[in-house]
Design a protein that fits this description.
- By secondary structure, this protein is mainly alpha-helical.
- It has a domain at 385-437.
- The chain has 19 helices and seven strands.
- The strands form three sheets. Strands 4-3-6 form a three-stranded antiparallel β-sheet, with no helix packed on it. Strands 1-2 form a two-stranded antiparallel ribbon.
- Helix 16 (311-323) runs antiparallel to helix 17.
- The radius of gyration is 44 Å and the shape is rod-shaped.
């Protein structure tokens, strides 16, 4: 209805203009050489209008002739674009159907039709990967990574290939580049944390991990790996603050304090750790600076007072007393250690050493018999504690931040085979040698 009304209005305007021109008075004439022309003003106006109309048609015709190749090229490009998009769609469908041959055929067609399209490159790379052509897939992923708008897609593909190949160092570098290309992806940050653990980049793993991770373990490992003394001290302090019961963390912090000449602070760290979780290495470190046996006995007594009821406190006193040839006190402390729950081989072997020392000092056959009896009891006593993984129960000679056998992070604890090995502080992070992140 609007078009009809508009047409009627336009027709009325044109009729009015024509009527106005037809009623214009006047005449126009022109003389060219021997020729003379004369016409009324309405006729001249009509001729001018017709001339402009013919000129307009001529210009459009010329433009159409010269623009025909461009229009043909644009039309061809649009057809290629539509065909390429259909090829990409069919290739994705073939990938979803696990049909590598059809996917390869459609991907090649998409590459021919859309040589610079990120989607065509991506589908070509995915098809090559599905077909086992890793080099071809890598080439396509690299081309994607070179384009700013598709860099993340290319880097993610290269990252997946590096993970499949077990090249953790390359994978860690690609993960860093991918996060720069697309910041804020939670899954990528988690992968970076796992890759940092795999490559032993403990400081980076600590920075990338959340509060639920075994941060004391990771900070201790980072401190041991740090080349800068100030950074190592800071990491060791953070590790001890996160878990004062972790003996390696306490030792890492105390050893760096002692290296700086801060003996009193170092002793305070060991004493605090002893109240939380006594460990033989803590006592060894605490008494290491004293060479005199009586001074070592006094140091053992100071440390034992931090946790007087614990069996380890009685045990270090027994060892220090034996070194000072105080066999009576040593026997008493060893028996107290057993009564406190340390019915273990090492304690009975120590009892045997005490009785042998007593026998050598003139204790007679009774002391010799007591030594033999202590050795016999050691055969049936509980096994000595060891560093043992709570995940796979594998025993280790020394502490490790991650189990060398099963790869579990933060689960190596000081315990014996009779008790379950447990470590507090977050979920288990397992990095098996062939695990895909």
């Amino acid at each position: 209805m609007r078009r009809v009304i508009g047409f009627l209005i336009l027709a009325a305007i044109l009729v009015g203009i024509a009527f106005g021109l037809g009623t214009l008075p006047g005449e126009m004439s022109a003389t060219v050489g021997t020729y003379s022309f004369a016409a009324s003003l309405p006729i001249v106006a009509l001729a001018v209008i017709i001339l402009f109309a013919l000129l307009y048609v001529l210009i459009r015709l010329v433009a159409a002739i010269f623009g025909a190749p461009g229009r043909f090229g644009r039309g061809r490009h649009q057809r290629q674009l539509r065909q390429g998009e259909r090829a990409v769609t069919r290739a994705f469908a073939a990938l979803a159907a696990a049909d590598p041959k059809a996917a390869k055929r459609e991907a090649d067609r998409a590459r021919r039709l859309l040589p610079q399209s990120p989607m065509a490159l991506l589908i070509s790379a995915e098809t090559a990967r599905l077909s086992g052509k890793t080099e071809e897939a890598e080439a396509s992923y690299r081309r994607l990574a070179e384009q700013s708008d598709s860099a993340f897609l290319g880097l993610r593909g290269l990252l997946r290939q590096a993970l499949d190949a077990g090249d953790w160092t390359l994978a860690a570098d690609l993960a860093r580049r991918a996060e720069l290309a697309h910041p804020g992806a939670p899954w990528l940050r988690a992968e970076r944390a796992k890759l940092a653990l795999r490559t032993g980049a403990w400081a980076e793993a600590l920075a990338l991990s959340g509060p639920e991770a075994p941060r004391a373990v990771m900070a201790t490992a980072a401190a041991d790996a740090a080349s800068d003394a100030a950074q190592a001290l800071r990491l060791a302090r953070d590790a001890f603050a996160a878990d004062p019961s972790l003996a390696p963390a306490a030792l890492a912090y105390a050893s760096r304090l002692r290296a700086r000449g801060e003996e009193r602070k170092a002793d305070g760290v060991i004493e605090k750790a002893w109240t939380r979780g006594p460990h033989p290495d803590l006592a060894t470190f605490y008494m290491a600076r004293d060479s005199d046996v009586m001074a070592r006995l006094k140091a053992a007594d100071r440390l034992a007072k931090c946790n007087p009821e614990h069996g380890e406190s009685h045990l270090i006193l027994a060892r220090a007393a034996l070194a000072a040839r105080l066999t009576g006190q040593a026997r008493q402390e060893a028996q107290a250690a057993i009564a406190a729950g340390l019915d273990q081989r090492r304690v009975w072997v120590l009892r045997a050493d005490i009785e042998e020392a007593d026998a050598a000092a003139g204790g007679g056959e009774g002391a010799t018999f007591a030594a033999h009896e202590a050795l016999r009891r050691s055969q049936t006593a509980q096994p000595d504690p060891r560093w043992r993984c709570a995940a796979c129960t594998a025993e280790q000679v020394e502490w490790h931040p991650s189990c060398p056998v099963c790869g579990t992070v933060g689960q190596v604890a000081w315990t014996n085979a009779m008790a379950p090995a447990t470590r507090a502080g977050g979920p288990v992070i397992t990095l098996l040698p062939g695990e895909a992140i």
